[in-house]
Write a structure and sequence with these properties.
Helices cover about 30% and strands about 0% of the residues. It is mainly α and about 90 residues long. It contains 3 helices and no strands. Helix 1 packs antiparallel against helix 3.
Length: about 90
């Protein structure tokens, strides 16, 4: 299995500090943007479904101090997910 960090949708190794992770996910969901190489990393709430709730969860954590993403977070790890993760290079 590939190691990844939950909520790092753009794969830059950072989860908070900008809105980029949420923007990448929302672009994919609503604007036909590219599929991330590690969909599992985009699943911020860990429910094995990529939807708007993941973007909201990530933004709530980063900017409102709400609950952090479930493991693998804050470090890298694996997760028995049904979402694909073909590549993640920041672990």
């Amino acid at each position: 299995p590939i190691l990844f960090k939950r909520a790092d949708c753009n794969g830059d190794g950072q989860v908070c500090g900008s809105v980029t992770d949420a923007v990448v996910l929302l672009s994919m969901l609503f604007l036909g943007g590219e599929q991330p190489l590690c969909q599992a990393a985009c699943d911020a709430n860990g429910d094995n479904v990529l939807d708007i709730s993941d973007a909201i969860y990530s933004l709530d954590f980063c900017f409102l101090g709400r609950s952090p993403p479930p493991p693998p977070f804050p470090g890298c790890g694996t997760d028995p997910t049904i979402l694909s993760c073909d590549q993640y290079s920041r672990c």
